[in-house]
Amino acid sequence: MRRILFIAFVVVLGTTLAIVGLLVRDIAGTTERLNTQVARVRDGDLSASSPVGIADELGRLGRAFGGMTAALRSTLLKA
Question: Which residues, at least 6 apart from 53, have a Cβ–Cβ distance to it below 8 Å?
Fold first, then answer.
């Protein structure tokens, strides 16, 4: 009985670690793409857009960033 519980524990632990690893990699990748776009805008490239297509907080941040750069482009074109 203990052996079965131990095997079940190892399987659940392994599955949990795999899922957490995938989530961390996804969040880190999204954050890195957004950081790259921020650096481009900082360097004066207002054509930078944020290719964040997710619906969570990072996705909303990416869309807000895209709206901000579009507003900056529009303001500079008017000046």
Answer: 59
Are the C-beta atoms of 18 and 41 separated by less than 8 Å? no
Angle subtended at Cα 15 by Cα 14 and Cα 21, rounded to the nearest 5 degrees: 90
Contact by Cβ (8 Å): 46, 76: yes
Task: List, in sequence order, every beta strand (DSSP E) within the chain.
Answer: none
Q: Which residue has the tokens 């190892």?
A: 10
> pLDDT tens for residues 15-55?
999 999 999 998 888 889 889 988 999 998 988 777 667 77
Backbone angles phi, psi at 18, to 5 degrees: -65, -45
Cβ-based neighbours of 39, under 8 Å, separated by 6 or more: none
Half-sphere exposure of 14 (CA within 13 A, CB side): 6
pTM above threshold 0.70? no
